[in-house]
Specification:
Helix content is 28%, strand content 31%. It contains seven helices and ten strands. The strands form three sheets. A six-stranded antiparallel beta sheet has the order 4-5-6-9-8-7. Strands 1-2 form a two-stranded antiparallel sheet. The chain has a two-stranded antiparallel ribbon with strand order 3-10.
């Protein structure tokens, strides 16, 4: 049991470094000998940690060459869909994320209800804007049933929100996504710097292993700039 906990800890730390680009896609991880020294663990612990990362689709191991990072997506096993931002970038677009605000709101201000045993006395609202070629393209509002500490707030500038959720002790097991055509109100038009009247509204609900809601999000997309696409790997 101790060995299992140890190799999982090593794998989780390496995964975090992959997700925050300490080890970028295409980079080699340190050698097994180097990892033994870095983490002060045995060879079998390092090998089990690497096997875990291989099974989750983050790295590939080639005899005589080393271990290469092949993905920095948080949900390699959860979803085989290529992310929309990746599709945009692969079409030659520049996509940037900007955190607009992080604030605590009351339960009554939240557009959904979380299970009471998930609440810590507040709801955290995270507002993000995605820019497409330096122009606002998507507004995202995420609602979390817990308070974010200062470290987690800083992390949001560099890593996925779902990595932060995981670091706060929650694990996302599945998503529900709904899409609707919508009319943009004045505030949304102002935030997106557009006179367009129609966009796409997306509602995402994220659940843990026992089906508790751990995140609720609403997003508005300006699809006249680029249609919303989903590409699935087979």
């Amino acid at each position: 049991m101790e060995r299992k906990i140890l190799y999982q800890s090593v794998a989780e730390d390496l995964k975090k470094k992959i997700l925050n680009s300490t080890y970028a896609v295409g980079d080699f991880l340190p050698t097994e000998i180097e990892l033994e020294k870095i983490y002060d663990v045995s060879k079998i612990t390092v090998r089990n940690a690497i096997k875990m990362l291989v099974s989750e689709g983050y790295v590939t191991k080639q005899s005589g060459k080393g271990t290469t990072v092949i993905s920095n997506r948080l949900f390699n096993r959860l979803s085989k869909a290529e992310s929309f931002s990746s599709i945009l970038e692969n079409n030659g677009n520049d996509v940037k994320k900007k955190i607009v605000s992080i604030k605590e709101i009351s339960i009554d201000e939240c557009p959904t209800k979380f299970e009471l045993n998930q609440l810590t006395g507040c709801i955290t609202e995270v507002t993000k804007v995605y820019e497409l070629n330096s122009k606002p393209f998507i507004i995202f509002k995420h609602y979390l049933p817990f308070r974010l500490n200062e470290e987690s707030r800083e992390d949001l500038n560099n890593v996925s929100l779902y990595q932060v959720i995981k670091e706060m002790g929650e694990m996302v097991n599945r998503f529900d996504d709904d899409f609707y055509g919508c009319l943009l109100d004045e505030d949304q038009q102002k935030s997106l710097e557009t006179t367009d009247k129609v966009g796409i509204k997306r509602i995402r609900k994220s659940y843990d292993q026992v089906d508790n809601l751990v995140e609720y999000a609403e997003a508005i997309y300006l699809t006249n700039k680029f249609p919303y696409k989903i590409k699935y790997e087979i």
